[in-house]
Each structure stands twice: as C-alpha cells, then as structure tokens.
Amino acid sequence: MDKARIHRLIVDKLGADLLLLQRAAQTAYEAATHEENVAENKYDTLGLEASYLATGQARRAAEIKQALGLFEHLNLRAYDASRGIQLSALVVLAAEDGSEQTLFLGPEAAGLKVVEQGREITVISPRSPLGQGLLGKAEGAEVVIAIGNSRQVFEVVEVH
C-alpha cells in the first residue's frame, strides 16, 4: 500500500468536503438573511432555522479546515518497530472473527473513509479508544478495546 497516495486521497477528500460545506453554509446564510424569510409573527421560524443551520455548517466547515491543515502538514513517517505505531501509521487489523480493516492514524478527521485499490481505509485519531490502544504497538501485537461492557480484540497484521 502506498501511504503517500492514501495521504493525498485523505487531503483531497477533506478539501472536497470543505468546499461542499462552505457552499452549503453560504446557501443557508443567504436563506437566513433573505427578505422573504423575515419573521412575520412569533411562529414564523424559517429564518431562525436557516440561521441555526448556517451556524452549524460554518462550525463544521471550520473543523474540516483545521483537519485539512493538520493533514497538509503531517510528516509521513516510515514504520519503526522500536517505536511502534505512531501518528501517520497505516495499520491492518484483524478481528477475532477473521475480518480485516485498514486504518490510517491521523491527527483529526476520525471516521473519514477513502478507497485505494479497492480497499477501504478509515481514518482514526489517537483520541479514540482504538487509536489509543494502537499507539506504540508492533506488528503481531494484540490490541484489546473495552467500550462499556463490550470487549473487542484485534491483532496488528501489518504496519506501514
């Protein structure tokens, strides 16, 4: 797997998501401030609702912009077995049922998914339980994640 290519896919996806959200926030802002949406009585809340929507979308756009900046300045490091899994690692995990998942340990944008050569790669951050569990681990290590009463066990199959 080409980690630099996957990194570029993540940056491109964040950039596309940012543009889309900025356009949506602008549209909601225009709806909120349009003269036809001025409240005529206390039950007329269309303008207020559009304002809330614009605020939420602008906030989400700011989060994506921050994540994009962090990813653009992320140094891709080669895997060093003596240090274990660190930020920018590309990790293949196997669950107890034999299923595998590929993860990119990034500074932000947890949950973002990209596809490279037919394989889905999910971004996780070190703040997530799985991200915390992976830090410092090596290939072949077992990672145990406890969430509530549930316990999940994974094996680190590959690290890039």
Automatic annotation (TrEMBL):
<dbReference type="GO" id="GO:0003746">
    <property type="term" value="F:translation elongation factor activity"/>
</dbReference>
<dbReference type="InterPro" id="IPR036953">
    <property type="entry name" value="GreA/GreB_C_sf"/>
</dbReference>
<dbReference type="Pfam" id="PF01272">
    <property type="entry name" value="GreA_GreB"/>
</dbReference>
<feature type="domain" description="Transcription elongation factor GreA/GreB C-terminal">
    <location>
        <begin position="118"/>
        <end position="160"/>
    </location>
</feature>
<protein>
    <submittedName>
        <fullName>GreA/GreB family elongation factor</fullName>
    </submittedName>
</protein>
<keyword id="KW-0648">Protein biosynthesis</keyword>
<dbReference type="InterPro" id="IPR001437">
    <property type="entry name" value="Tscrpt_elong_fac_GreA/B_C"/>
</dbReference>
<keyword id="KW-0251">Elongation factor</keyword>
